[in-house]
């Protein structure tokens, strides 16, 4: 089992930045790939970014490429999502998730955090 807790969400103006954190506990975090997903009201959960256990493999959704950066610190059992140049359409609940094999699909992840709200005002 892996327990995940997100933090760092909040309200920010368009063009601003936020850094989300995902603190992991339980089984060895460093053996899992990590993903970030988001879900806006009335919409399906969508892929944002993913990083392999070593950090050597990274994927981004086209909508965030060049603005968001995923990273991880295995020594701290923590993953991060740095979000710059935020847009109102980035408003959603953001979830981190862990999986044994890196994936862009929500169904590929076995462990999920509770989510953190990000609201971008125009």
Provide tags for this entry:
four-stranded antiparallel sheet, 52% strand, mainly beta, seven-stranded mixed sheet, 0% helix
Question: Please, could you describe this protein's structure?
Answer:
This protein has 122 residues and is mainly beta. The chain contains no helices and eleven strands. Strands 2, 4, 5, 6, 9, 10 and 11 form a seven-stranded mixed β-sheet that branches. A hairpin with a 6-residue loop joins strand 4 (33-39) and strand 5.
Largest sheet geometry: 7 strands, mixed
Find the count of extended strands (DSSP E, 2+ residues). Answer: 11
Beta-sheet strand percentage?
over 45%
Task: Estimate the mean pLDDT confidence.
Answer: 96
Fraction of residues in H or I helices:
under 10%
Which class do the helix and strand fractions yield? mainly beta
Describe what is shown at a glance.
With 122 residues, the chain is an all-beta fold. It is 0% helix and 52% strand.
SSE diagram, text form:
Layout: E1 2-7, E2 10-13, E3 18-26, E4 33-39, E5 46-51, E6 58-60, E7 68-73, E8 78-83, E9 92-99, E10 111-112, E11 116-121
Parallel strand pairs: 2-11
Antiparallel strand pairs: 1-3, 3-8, 4-5, 4-9, 5-6, 7-8, 9-10, 9-11
